[in-house]
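Box 3.1 — From sequence to structure: ABC transporter ATP-binding protein
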Amino acid sequence: MSNTPGDEFPAPTRRELLKPLEYLGGAGIAGIFTGVIVLMVTRDWALAGIFAAAAFIVVLVVLALTVLSFKPDEREIADLAEQGSTEEPPAADPREGLH
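Predicted structure (token representation):
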């Protein structure tokens, strides 16, 4: 019995497949914009490249952390349940009993 991804999970939609490229594109645009501004101000290619790379990385990390902070809505929870995923209940707050 082969264990191919199509057997267990539905194929991802085109939007789900292209979502990471949207984040890379946005970070790339921010990096290019920053690099061009630094290049116009300093006329130093090395410094412009450093700032462009730093802006790309910072924007990419901020976008990734922002996406991780979102809670799933009802549709996503239903999709996870449909795929057989079990969500663990949130851990109890240890400070709850200390009044």
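Summary of the box: The CA atoms of residues 56 and 84 lie 36 Å apart.
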